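input
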Amino acid sequence: MTTGTFDTLTAARELEAAGVERRQAEAIAKTIRSGQGELATKADIAAVKSDIGAVKSEVAALKWIVGIQGAISLATFAAVLFLAARLMSGTGA
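output
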């Protein structure tokens, strides 16, 4: 996240012009500026959305791989059961 530019002097002067005492106007302007470091920019949000999209794609690929592995495991298990049944029935392989 980035800090945007905020002109505390101009803000304090505008507050003074609106009737706020100088010390209060300066304190308000400084408070606003100090809080700006915590704000996300549009670029920050776009980057997070891009990262989320990439993670969604990776999760979809992993789901596909896990599904294929599950199908292979099931087929292997079925084949082992089939062969075991044939061996137990005495017909052999």
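quick obs: The chain has three helices and no strands.
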